[in-house]
Design a protein that fits this description.
By secondary structure, the protein is an all-beta fold. 3% of the residues lie in helices and 58% in strands.
Length: 137
């Protein structure tokens, strides 16, 4: 793999413990212009509870890797200031952004969930690519 390409498409999907996580990323040219020597990517996540118990997402852990193999980890409570509760069949959708020092990279991670009786478990956020249009050969 060369330093300019990512093996991951800009979409991902994973199901862990009956919780589906779908992600779609896109390059944000308008936000990237504000950064000097940087690229900004927006991503939209939909979390769907396909199980039979109510769950709450309490925290996140992202692993962000750029084309130079520099990795940054981001952890914290909830997402966009929320810790959504999902009853069976419910979804939660949000959008956020990620700055990158290279025009190509990838993100992956986990959400920490709490189920009935306080049971804690992690769900996977499958890897997805971050790619600015000018970086595609």
């Amino acid at each position: 793999m060369s330093g300019i390409q990512t093996p991951f498409p800009p979409v991902s999907e994973a199901v862990t413990n009956n919780i589906r996580v779908e992600v779609l990323s896109r390059y944000s040219a308008e936000d990237s212009r504000k950064l000097e020597k940087g690229w900004v990517f927006q991503y939209t996540v939909r979390i769907t509870n396909e199980g039979s118990e109510t769950v709450q997402m309490v925290s996140r852990h992202w692993v962000i890797t750029d084309a130079m193999e520099h990795t940054e980890e981001v952890e914290g409570p909830g997402v966009i200031g929320e810790q959504p509760v999902l009853a069976p069949g419910e979804s939660f959708k949000y959008s956020s952004w990620c700055p990158l020092r290279t025009p190509v990279g990838s993100m992956r991670g986990t959400y920490q969930m709490v189920g009935s009786g306080g049971r804690q478990f992690d769900i996977e956020i499958a890897a997805f690519g971050l790619r600015a249009p000018s970086s595609i050969n």
